[in-house]
Design goal:
Layout lengths: L1 E6 L2 E7 L15 E2 L6 E8 L8 E5 L3 E6 L2 E7 L8 E7 L3 E7 L9 H8 L2 H6 L2 E11 L2 E6 L6 H12 L2 E4 L2 E7 L2 E5 L14 E12 L4 E5 L1 H9 L2 E2 L5 H17 L2 E6 L3 H14 L2
Parallel strand pairs: 2-4, 4-9, 11-15, 15-18
Antiparallel strand pairs: 1-2, 1-3, 5-6, 6-7, 7-8, 8-9, 10-11, 10-12, 10-13, 10-17, 13-14, 14-15, 16-18
Amino acid sequence: MEIKINLAGQILRISGADGEMFLNPGILAPYVCEAEQSDRDIICRIVDRLPEPAGVCLYHDASRWVYRSGDAVVSYMGAVERSVEDAYIRAEHRERTTDLQVLSASLNGRISAKTVINGLEAEHWIVQNGGFLLHCSYISHKGGAVLFTAPSGVGKSTQAELWRRHRGARVINGDRAVVRLGEQGFEAWGVPFCGSSGISNQSCLPLRAIVCLSQAAETAIRPLKGVRAFRMLWEGCSVHTWNRDDVLRCSETVKDTVEQVPVFHLACTPDESAVVALEQVLSKLQR
């Protein structure tokens, strides 16, 4: 079994034995493409036992242990807060390949598309390709992208839904987007990482604005510049903090983004007044 997907401008070839792989690409379906070449190969396998960790441990948290072993970076994923032995996914990343091993005992017969997504650890190669993965809701409005970013629970999905309901905007993704410098300026890409929203669509649009949200009794909006804009975007970035080069590249891209893309702070209520306030400032950008 083999499919190719377009993920933020990079072509990934995902392959595995026919009897081990998903029958339906599911959330990956909007990203399937017919490209001849690939930028990265993801080879998937079901194993009865994951190889033991080797090399130097770079990082670990409640869901991941990361090791450097020779020219590879190896991640063990799962409920691993107490021990790496509790991992059920092992991803061995090299320059152009990922060897993805999944523990048979954790599966219901086949490797799912969701399991492949979890094992991609796409933050690294997104950064290396000149972009960053942002925790946000992504809408398409009048041919451009508007991103709503904030900590979980503040109202990203609510604002996206208000724009869909009141202005006919299309929600591209309810939880993530890639921001990347393209040939004509910064652009936003839909990605198959959508959290609990379940909304994930393939789209690449020019980035019109990034909106940093907070809750308030009354709606108010103001532009953000410089360090304040950088800080609020950086808080929403997904980056491998154990990789110094990734952190430096990502910070440079975020810096360039806030210098070239309008960033706003929208203190808002969960109603149409927030749409009206943002709509007014966006209309001025088009003049």
